[in-house]
Each structure stands twice: as structure tokens, then as C-alpha cells.
Amino acid sequence: MPELPEVEALAQFLRGRADGRAVTEVSIGAISALKTFRPPPDALVGGTVVDVQRHGKWLDLMVATSTGEPLHLIWHLSRAGWVRWSEQLSTNPVRPGKSPLALRVRLDDGSGFDLTEAGTRKRLAVHVVEDPTNVPQIATLGVEPLSDEFTEDRLAELLASRNQQVKGLLRDQGTIAGIGNAYSDEILLAARMSPFAMTKSFDAERTRVLWEAIREVLTGAVESASGKPAIELKDAKRRGMKVHGRTGQPCPGWDDVPCGDTVHEVSFADSSLQYCPTCQTGGKPLADRRMSRLLR
Q1: Which SUPFAM superfamilies match (predicted)?
Q2: Looking at 139, 160, 195, which one is the last position of a domain?
Q3: How far apart are the C-alpha atoms of 5 and 219, rounded to whole Å?
Q4: Which residue of 15, 124, 206, 241 pairs with 202 in a disulfide if CB–CB is 3.0 to 4.6 A?
């Protein structure tokens, strides 16, 4: 799933290519992806793209319509969705069916993009709204972790407001917007913290370390992703991971401090996390919930 750094890079990529261009076609390939019905998608046709923004993991194509009313085409790529840009889109009509194509946006110079979704579990979500906050998931987003509002004091308040595992707090979009499974693993490695550490156990020093790790990891990932074409972002994200998705491989440590321990995994029903015992849990492996159930 693309997270804050990749979604920010996609926003930059689309902004640089679509700004100022007129929308000539919006076609739906998967009606299940469209979560709103008024305004209809074709209300965007004839309008001009004026910006592309990011809200957490959501992308927002802002269009000044021919009637003068601003509209927003907003989408969440979920786990298997992606943006496929083309300088010359196919002229074949979009036909709803079993194709991965969920939505097509064509611009006045023939360029544009397709939203696609692989697999059978369709979770890609597309909204056409007059205001981004009309999308409930955007209206309830938490603080942006790279914004000026995300201070050490703000993080301390969030940690103290509940008692849960820190991994869960980092992934909670209503608390901190844009961090998902992959970057929470990377942040916790950088902070040298267990994903199962309870939030109310954090004192001022541990809070500062976590805050710095959040800023360091996300800032570095945004810088690395910026300027890359959409087609390269997935592979670039995988190559940049130090612990996430690297079960069984040597831990590279952080900040050029070598480790060499083996990356471990904890599996859940539909996801998993990766961590380094030496760097994060005092050398003690965490219980793998899936294996624990099998051994009962």
C-alpha cells in the first residue's frame, strides 16, 4: 500500500503534468470503486486541473469546472491500487468488467492516467465531491506528521491519550495521517523501540526519540521518492526498506551502525510486521501470534 512518501510523490508527479490541462474524459471501469453519485464523474469534464494535493494517503485532483464550481476527484489506492500515467492514453473505450482498470481521466493533450487495482479484493475508493471534508475518512484524519502542528508536545498528548501498542498508534489514520504498516516498522527500527511498547509507558525522552524517528524516516523517504515517475515508486519503496518486508535477512541497523541480527516477523490475519530483536526488543523475539495459535 502506498503511504505518505509515495502518495506525496504521486501528487507532485500528477501536479507537474496535469496542472492547467482541461479534463476531456472521465470513465468508470469499476462501478464498485465509485463511492459517490452526486456530482457525477462527468461533471469534471470541461473543467481545468488547478492542483493535486495529498490528504494522508488520499490523492485529490482539484478541478475548476466550466460552471465555476470547484470539484475534487479524490481517491485512495488501498492495498492493490495504483496510478498509471500515459503521455498518450489508449483511445479504446473503457468497458466495465474484469479488467484491473477502475477509472480513466483523459486530458486535452491526449495524456492522462488510469486508476487500476489488482487482485480480487477490491478496496480502491473514488469520490467526486465539492469539498474534501465531504469524504468522512478525510474529515477525521489526524495530524500530518511532517507539518508544523506535529510537535513533540503534540505527540506526547497522543501517546498519553490512550494505552495501546505504539505500532497501532502510528498506523491509526485518525491520530497521525499517512503512516502505514511499512513506515511504522521503519520508524520503530530507527527509534530502537518494540512495536508492542505501550504508549502510556513513554516518558519525555522516549517521546523525543520517537518524534525524531518519525520526522527522519518520513522526510528521508519523501526526498527519495520526489521526482520519480509513478511507475518507479513501488520498487523504490521496497529498495528503501531496512526492516519491513525483509524477514530472514540481516538487519542493516540504522545511521551506519551495523547490527547483523536476523529480521524477525510477527504475523496477523491479513498483515505482518517486521522488527530486529537486537535493535528493538533487547534481543528477545516477540511471540508470533499465528504460530502461537498453531502450537496450541
Answers
A1: Glucocorticoid receptor-like (DNA-binding domain) (SSF57716), N-terminal domain of MutM-like DNA repair proteins (SSF81624), S13-like H2TH domain (SSF46946)
A2: 139
A3: 8
A4: 206
